[in-house]
Known about the structure:
Elements: E1 2-6, H1 11-27, E2 32-38, H2 42-45, E3 53-57, H3 77-87, E4 91-94, H4 99-107, E5 112-116, E6 132-134, H5 150-156, H6 178-187, E7 191-195, H7 207-221, E8 224-227, H8 234-242, E9 248-250, H9 256-265, E10 268-272, H10 275-283, E11 287-291, H11 296-299, E12 307-310, H12 335-348
Amino acid sequence: MRVLIVRLGALGDVVHAIPVAxxxxxxxxSARIDWLVSAKHREILDLxxxxxxxxxxxxxxSRGEGQPGDDAGATSLMAAIRELRRARYDVAFDLQxxxxxxxxxxxxxxxxxxxxxxxxxRERLARLFYTDAYDPGRGGLYDPRETRHVVDINxxxxxxxxxxxxxxxxxxxxxxxxxxxxxxEQTGGxxxxxxxxxxxxxxxxxxxxxxxxxxxxxxxxxxxxxxxxGPGEEAIAAEVVAGSAGAGILSPKxxxxxxxxxxxxxxxxxxxxxxxxxxxxxxxxxxVGIYGPTRPARNGPMSPRDITxxxxxxCQCHHLRRCRLDRMCxxxxxxxxxxxxxERRLAAEPDRV
Length: 353
């Protein structure tokens, strides 16, 4: 059996799709399982042993195959399509629900192409490419009546081929990292991860408040706080460090491999709804999530011990990248509320502190 998974990005969404590959590997141990992904999100899949091959397409406009400027190890769109066709897949799963992802899955020539019903795809026309459409059976992808986690919704696609999953699995290899080694040496091996950045402005809790969390973690638990940052976020992370009275340190530039190693050793992560938080959740890092325009029930951490502080009940900008109001609901979350969540989460797993 030859299987193709299509989930190009983003990082958190790719992480939320890993249990599909794990469930397929458990159900069909000898199957060939390939994954089509964009170049900038390939690194996390390199750590997933359930996958046989990662087919990587460039994130940038191609200037010709192999020309300078192409993403390392990635192919052009047309080269990817040729490679997909050569694989002769029996079934393909489109977990992205975009016209682009559905068209790429269809171009593989797989006998069956399975995706979500029109209510659950991100672009409704994507449904036209599928031979089989799975309807999770509630209001829709962003409907408030849909309270299941996106991981469980993704796994529901497998019911089309007779596979049911009771417990999601996130098989991610342990890795060595010089960056993580340096952080452990600097902190004495006891640290928290604080992640102030996010792609959406209304997912970013104010840096000054996060700095106060760092101060409290040092005063109450002797934990140094490591400020993570991604592209374009270094200044935000540095602002948190500057306000932390020495309780925080700025992380070096990190790869996904570095993030995995750091998250495995952390006593806690405090973060908004971002890719790094979803990586940490998959690894079992204790989490406190700060949620504004997205719903924790749908894409928060899955561990019952993790805690989210959310304004889901009052948010009027669900799943919008920018707040429509004068004051975003995330600003209603005060430091004391987050610190209360931090104390409860650390108390639930005292061996990690």
